[in-house]
Amino acid sequence: MRLRRAVRNSFSSVGAYLLLAALGFLVRKLFLQYFDLSYLGYEGLFGSTFTILSVMEMGAGSMFTYLLYSAIEKDDREEISAIMSMFRQLYQGIGLLVIGVGLVLYVCLPYIVTESVENWTYVRIIFLVQMLVSVSTYFLAYRRVLLLADQCEYLVIRIETFFRILGVLSKIAVIVWLQNYLVYILVTFFTNVLANLAVYGSCKRRYPYLKRVRVMPADYKEKKIDREMRSLIIHKLSATIYSSADNIIISALCGIRTVGLFSNYTLINTNVMNLVVKTLQPLEASVGNKVNASTVEENISFYKGYDLFCRMLALFTFVGFSVMLQPVLAWFYGDAYLLPYGMVIAMAANNYIAVRQYAVTAYRNALGHYEIDRNSRIASAVCNIVISIAAGTLTGISGILFATAVGHCFIWYGRVKAVGRIYLQDRSFVRRTFVQEIPGFLLGLVEVVLCMGACMRMPVSFGGILGRLAVCCIVPNLLNLCLFHKAEGMETIRQYASQIIAQVMRRKDV
User: Fold this and answer.
1) Which of 142, 157, 207, 303 has a beta carbon 3.0–4.6 Å from 12's, enabling a disulfide?
2) Domain boundaries, the chain
3) Among the residues of 108-180, which ranges form H helices?
């Protein structure tokens, strides 16, 4: 049953993101034709600002998902209602706090945007819309955490895909016919609100037993939420600073137009990485259930297979970004929109780290005890900012992205340490993991060189892009299968692949 749900979630995620990615590229192409590049810079800057404000969420989503795993496994409906009532109360308080801080920042906008601005009305409206989109999530979208914990992500995907397609088509109409940027950004707000309302209604119908429970401060203490929150706030603050500092530092050191150019790279990066993550994410709920329902011995083969799959996928991702990102942007937008290739390599390395650690991240998120890797999260944020400023001053945007990859290594280290100590009870797990990573990353560099050499004479055209795609799909994956065919975990991958194919064929027969 859980495998069937995971397969359904994966296929729904992948299909939705392929469609939305294609439409997103079309919107960006039209945007650059009809609107000034600086608007992209403002969106990126304010988006990062509100991402930093999301630190007020304190990691509550991850923590309450972790609490729900056990309650769902036991089908304890009273407990589920109590947890969701606490989550609702906390999220509404956070939403009000974000509104208050956002209004203060609204007054201080001239100090945030230091460059010359021709039309402050536009800039202020962009800021307000970003704030409304951010705040609406706290008041409307909190129930989706129950769907995700119960492995019903496909329901959320269906709803959000419909409204995102509606939003993208509306944006295309606004760009081509109205050419009004204010209407363009309001479309984002309204489609986001409608999607959140639809998800809320779907959750209400699926779980009719949910009821509002009166929540007191003692309830948070009883479930040890107050203790976990103290550690999670450090996690959230560090992660938010780490992930959102780039646009702000790029704006300060390189200018708002460079932020706009960088947003073209992040558009492709976000869509591709979301596609990768959506393929893996449905298994995360399975991990949560396995951790609560299985012994370590029963679960270790699954972990090894999951980790090996992430290793091979990370190598493929690293090669794909290193070889294809710059030619795709040159073909789709033109050479004038390109940034240095060193930034591309740094972004590819960061993506390698993100995918490579996904299995250990899934286990770490299901275990709690966030105090164990708290210091590593602080180190990641501090390292990212310090190295970004130092390297960015010397080498520009390439140095800033390199700092992001270095900071990501600290996050990875902390997650490996947490899983080794809490779950595996093995203190040597950290050392073994990173010793094994040295030849793994060197293998990735070799695969990049091989693919770059094979693609060197290919033109920057649609045919050339397809040729590069074929090389990046065949060379690293074939080499990885040959090298890892006898590795620990490969048999688990084969077993799960067989089951997934059987599920897909059974669905076709129906």
Assistant:
1) 157
2) 1-223
3) 109-112, 120-140, 144-149, 153-173
